[in-house]
Amino acid sequence: MVEQFDRKLILETGEEYYGHGFGAAEQRVCEIVFNTSMVGYQEIISDPSYTYQAVVMTYPLIGNYGICDDDYESRTPSIGALIVREYNDQPSNFRYTHTLGEVLEENHIPAISGIDTRKLTRSIRDLGSRRVLITGADTPLEEGLRIIAETPVPHDAVPLVSCRKRWYSRTANHRYNVVAVDCGIKLNIIRCLNARGCNVTVVPYDTPAEVIERMDPDGVFLSNGPGDPEDVAPVIELVRALRGRYPIFGICLGHQMIALAAGAKTYKLKFGHRGGNHPVRNLRTGRIEITSQNHSYAVDAQSVAGTGLEITHVNLLDGTVEGLACPADRLFSVQYHPESAPGPQDSAYLFDQFVAMMKEAKTHA
Fold first, then answer.
1. How many whole angstroms separate alpha carbon 295 and alpha carbon 202?
2. Active site residues
3. What is the distance in angstroms between the CA of the first residue and the CA of the last residue of the chain?
4. Rounded to a whole number, what is the largest CA-CA distance in the chain?
5. 5 neighbors 100 (Cβ within 8 angstroms)
6. Which residues are bridge partners to 136 per DSSP?
7. Cα–Cα distance for residue pair 208/234, rounded to 1 Å
8. pTM of the predicted model over 0.85
9. How far apart are alpha carbons 317 and 120 in whole angstroms?
10. Measured between alpha carbons, how far is residue 80 from residues 48, 65, 107, 302, 315 in Å?
11. pLDDT per residue over 134-192, tens digit each?
């Protein structure tokens, strides 16, 4: 008996991959990328940094522990699409409240299973990230390629996922007040700050510097988020206005925007870094951290010279810049995600470093 496929992927370079649909039965054009994590698919689908991206999971079995209400990274998942080898719709987990397919359907996110994800991942690795259409199995190749070509490349990812108005995450007996600029912030970042005695005020990405100044924060945090950092001009200008006035900590997109604000440059990687197994060397200590990553862009190491920033961390797989700092301005950033528990606690010290900077700034105020 011939297996009947109902969905397929069409890559802009003409390749087709057939499979079975789950989640929402929608047609969508995305950028195709892969993630090497063995667990954490709920955190991946709810990470705003995956907006407009179709994520190929290299781990073959997805959905087997369901979805848990307490484990989301954002309130509304905004991933473009999900591509897996085998989907399990009968989870075994006492904590689960929904299946993965139910959550994807509720949030209008298409997904496809039965794909040869090893072959597809090798294609992305060798040829780079490309645009892809997830569509019905009967869509002609020529029509699919036309749809991809006629769909504009989006540049509104951060405005799409940033909060519309400020909101608060408070903790008992707080010691510090942090303003977090929301470019697509993950909730676990806020939890990590709360756990260290920080009340967090989350503000939209385009909040003017004078508004943040009136809040009189002890520190400013620049969040992760989707897309090209050069598209987020308001935050780049914000960093220029606030640098040296408050302790500033940036993660992922925040790291890239700190670099751009200082005069460095960024560039797009061939297929990006996504997963929880990237070794990074701390150049100050020599220590190697196992990190969790999710980004398409990187800071150009050659362009950092003359910006007042120093490179503090490098990726041992490809030599890309993973950390920047300016001690005189109490400013630092990392490209990877310390809140994702890589290692599992290799990078937790970065939040402690931010708190120490705020303590020092208050002491000398």
1. 22
2. 252, 337, 339
3. 76
4. 76
5. no
6. 7
7. 8
8. yes
9. 21
10. 10, 22, 10, 33, 27
11. 999 999 999 999 999 999 999 999 999 999 999 999 999 999 999 999 999 999 999 99
